[in-house]
Backbone:
């Protein structure tokens, strides 16, 4: 996952972009970047690291101008080198910068087409550079010296015709404007909002509404699947549907884990969705285990808290924060490499023994993916003196790779792949393991049918990919190229940036 943002303001936007990247940091911890536009000049700063480490005062001073775009990265393609930090820049036509959240599933075909037919050079292995160049080519086809927003919309329509997979993007053309678009399935989230100032109205496009809230913008709407939103440099906003057959099918894993609970995605409160997940899970426990002997419900911070609290309330069992999270350690699931993930769980979480001693504890997590967290946490609960250790997951078992922007490329790395629920319980060392049913998860997110979202991408749970074009061969190649071992080998990939001037 990545976090993206674009702002057209009435005064310098560097601080607002930086602040919004801090708020979107949970979507990507590996690299961060900002490009601003001042007159007809673009200023870039990007590097590997957290937003707070990438941008020093000297960079902020250079990031002048009233419009810009920003990105925090969690890689799903290419290398982890800083050359693949975003935004990406292409010189022709007009100069375009783009920040992308998602993953293209036909990247290899596009790469070939860009080279052989569109005569374009790609300097990295990133699919986001591909997306930018496809857009650039489609815009160039308009053949104009001076473009208007309709040309941008036509180019986005061209992107939709050529690109497959998940993509939400924000982009900028110097002296012209900032725009955002979402793939025809709306797999990755994207919202836009406005803020009134004495100097006039400012607009912002961002991955999650929480970024708008904290910067003082109010939400206008989600970018619809296939839609593009264009904000001109002088603050005029235009929207247009650019896809032939848009079908909203957002990624359900955003609601399970990725998004912040204080965000609203496709008109659904993530917080409420997680509360309902807790309720559903409690109902399942009451149904299938009415004589349970759970003494206390303990969440695994952070993300599971919302569901765990509701689960405890519904069961009428005490809720206790038995694990304390080190506030200086980030999200372990999106860390690069199994070794660092494993080590970070122990650095991140520690048990308060007296909450466990001689008790039957129900540990609750939002999801079990590789099992890195749950395996260690169950052991920690035992070491803390728990009598029995039960485990509940607010999501069903994750059994299939994700191909739309979450870095779960290898089925063999998923603990529930090819295992029954009992086998997973044994593998994790739990006395009993309860998974959410997929139907219940969908109900919980869909507000029991009250939401306008009719379907979700649930591929990590059922192996059904909404774009309908994910073949076993594609999955095989993905697993071979991006399993943990293969990614470690990428580490040495070139750091060379052929880009805008990027001050160190
Ligand atoms: O089975 P695994 O492969 O361990 O993945 C699942 C775990 O990873 C995530 O936590 P993370 O530490 O990333 O973030 P959080 O603080 O938001 O819960 C998620 O909330 C689960 O706890
Ligand atoms: N997680 C994402 O959205 C990743 C974006 C892009 N595919 C990259 O690897 O940089
Ligand atoms: Mg967690």
Residues:
């Amino acid at each position: 996952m990545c976090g993206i943002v674009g702002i057209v303001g009435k005064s310098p936007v560097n601080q607002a972009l930086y602040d919004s990247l801090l708020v979107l940091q949970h979507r990507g911890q590996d690299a961060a970047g900002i490009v601003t536009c001042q007159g007809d000049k673009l200023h870039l700063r990007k590097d590997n690291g957290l937003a707070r480490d990438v941008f020093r005062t000297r960079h902020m001073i250079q990031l002048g101008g009233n419009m810009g775009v920003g990105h925090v990265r969690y890689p799903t393609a290419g290398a982890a080198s800083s050359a693949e930090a975003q935004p990406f820049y292409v010189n022709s036509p007009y100069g375009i910068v783009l920040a992308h959240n998602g993953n293209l599933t036909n990247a290899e075909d596009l790469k070939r087409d860009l080279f052989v037919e569109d005569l374009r050079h790609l300097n990295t292995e990133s699919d986001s550079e591909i997306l930018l160049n496809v857009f650039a080519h489609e815009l160039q086809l308009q053949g104009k010296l001076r473009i208007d927003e309709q040309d941008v919309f036509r180019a986005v329509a061209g992107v939709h015709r050529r690109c497959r997979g998940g993509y939400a993007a924000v982009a900028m053309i110097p002296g012209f404007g900032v725009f955002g678009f979402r793939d025809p399935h709306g797999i990755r989230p994207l919202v836009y909002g406005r803020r009134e100032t004495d100097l006039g109205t400012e607009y912002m496009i961002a991955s999650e509404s929480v970024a708008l809230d904290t910067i003082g913008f109010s939400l206008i709407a989600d970018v619809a699947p296939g839609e593009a939103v264009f904000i001109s440099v002088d603050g005029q906003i235009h929207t247009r549907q650019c896809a032939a057959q848009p079908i909203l099918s957002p990624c359900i894993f955003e609601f399970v884990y990725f998004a912040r609970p204080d965000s609203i995605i496709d008109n659904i409160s993530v917080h409420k969705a997680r509360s309902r997940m807790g309720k559903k899970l409690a109902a399942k426990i009451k149904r299938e285990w009415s004589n349970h002997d759970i003494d206390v419900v303990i969440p695994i911070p952070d993300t599971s808290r919302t569901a765990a609290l509701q689960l405890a309330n519904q069961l009428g069992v005490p809720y206790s924060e038995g694990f304390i999270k080190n506030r200086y350690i980030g999200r372990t699931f999106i860390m690069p490499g199994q070794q660092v993930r494993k080590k970070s769980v122990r650095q991140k979480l520690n048990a308060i023994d007296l909450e466990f001693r001689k008790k039957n504890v129900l540990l609750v997590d939002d999801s079990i993916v590789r099992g890195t967290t749950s395996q260690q946490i169950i052991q920690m609960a035992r070491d803390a003196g728990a009598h029995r250790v039960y485990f509940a997951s607010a999501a069903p078992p994750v059994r299939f790779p994700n191909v739309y922007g979450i870095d779960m490329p290898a089925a063999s790395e998923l603990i529930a792949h090819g295992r029954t629920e009992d086998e997973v319980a044994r593998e994790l060392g739990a006395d009993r393991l309860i998974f959410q049913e997929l139907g219940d998860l969908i109900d919980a997110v869909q507000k029991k049918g009250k939401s306008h979202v009719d379907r979700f991408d649930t591929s990590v749970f059922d192996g059904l990919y909404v774009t309908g074009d994910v073949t076993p061969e594609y999955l095989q190649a993905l697993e071979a190229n991006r399993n943990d071992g293969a990614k470690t080998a990428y580490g040495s990939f070139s750091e060379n940036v052929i880009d805008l001037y990027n001050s160190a």
Observations:
- The pocket of glutamine (ligand 2) is lined by residues 1-2, 73-78, 84, 100-103, 126-128, 405 (CB under 6 Å).
- The mean pLDDT is 95.
- The domain at 270-325+346-466+472-489 is CATH 3.40.50.2020 (Rossmann fold).
